[in-house]
Amino acid sequence: MDTQQARELASVDALGQAELVASGELTAVELLDAAITRLDAARGLNAVVADLFDRGRRQAALLDDSGALRTGEVGPLAGVPFLLKDLGASLAGAPEVMGSRALRGYVPTESSWVVERYLDAGLVVFGKTNTPEWGNHCTTEPLVFGPTVNPWSPDVTPGGSSGGSAAAVAAGVVPAASGGDGTGSIRVPASCCGLVGLKPRRGRSSFAPDGGQGMEGLVNGHALTRTVRDSAALLDAITGAATGDPYTAPRPDTTFLAAITQQPNGIRILTTTDSPFPGAPTHPEVVAAVDATASTLAALGHHVDQGQPTFDPDAVADAIAVLHAVSNAQLHAFGKQVLGREPEEDDFEPSSWVMMREGFTTTGVAYAEAIGAVHAQTRRFAAGMAAHDVLLVPTLLTPPPPYGLLNQPRGTTRAFFDVEFATTGWTTMANVTGWAAISLPLGVTSTGLPIGVQLMAPDETVLLRLAAQLETATPWSGRRPGAWVG
């Protein structure tokens, strides 16, 4: 396959690439080599921080030689090149730095349950993507690897913490890459990079073999994609529970990929463009994108009302700060284990160090109260949504923000999140409540940058159906960033 053919494959989504392999038109090895060609052309983005080409070629060759791709013994994504976020997607024998200088020597001996599901589905893993330290920032500019460049503009962040994955997908290196989301870390980069970014509902997949949950239920993993159908297919791949999981979401009646072929009817949608946090105005171009989406949904036959659920924003922000401070104290302990010595301040990012120091002094009572506050505000939020099925809100309150805004220490963890929430607005409420949420690239700024619009609901099925409907009504597939490698 020549370079031109490799570049042309950039515009084919994951399911489309898998169909090329299943039909015999291409081999898994050829698809992988084409993706590596595109990755080499996109090196300037600094999206991928660990090349795993040899292991990818071995896996692709095994798929080709086994005959399983031709007999239908594997899933609909088999043979597709795939990248893993370098945090929360452990692959045995591959380095996992998690954006931290303290973890440069860490190599896990076990793969995470979700990664095993990706491999079982036949996705060909050939690299790890850039992420901020411990996923702390909604931007991707770690000191250990340097910033990832947004393919749409070098002046704005690709978002975070799944920014490396988002940049690789947006540029056309791969059709999909994994991500994780604790306060918006899939949806923020999806908005910044013009992608589909779904945070699943709590308990949709497993944190095995090590964990039972992520940050008291705030964290969920999934992927960044360019099409809704790819997001649905990847969610099918990781849906389920591992033995001994503390809780799990009920399985849907049908696969998510099959569900999106069914048109949603008369969905009750509540919408607002206001920020849930005081003093955080919404940019006029973001307001316009949300309002246009509301009008489209109404024209499609859904019931759209103005309004928003209520909750105590101070209680939410305080609880998020406590949970992150304790999580970062855990990072310090893990860093000590990897380094074989007591970590020093220079081993971590300045903002992480602030969180760690607070985590060391957080009492058990304060931690328990933070968990209680999360549950209490979830009930208030859900009560406010009782008459509606879906909440339609901005993904970000602003267009893609500049570098150097969302990763700086602010003196306290709460002050750090006050700055973050002034940009991210509603994203954290999906993590607090455990609701599913999806960001769709439905808006564009006057300068051509993407604007994400967010839908939230207790379950993914209604979101994916609405997303597929919107993808048809207001298609985004023809938009390409300046750094597109196709």
Automatic annotation (TrEMBL):
Top-level EC class, please? Answer: hydrolase
Task: State the InterPro entries in the record.
Answer: Amidase, Amidase_dom, AS_sf
Q: What is this protein called?
A: amidase
| Enzyme Commission designation | 3.5.1.4
Q: Where is the Amidase domain?
A: 30-458
Stretches that traverse the bilayer: none
Reactions that this protein is recorded to catalyse? a monocarboxylic acid amide + H2O = a monocarboxylate + NH4(+)
The similarity annotation says: Belongs to the amidase family.
A molecular function (GO) term: amidase activity
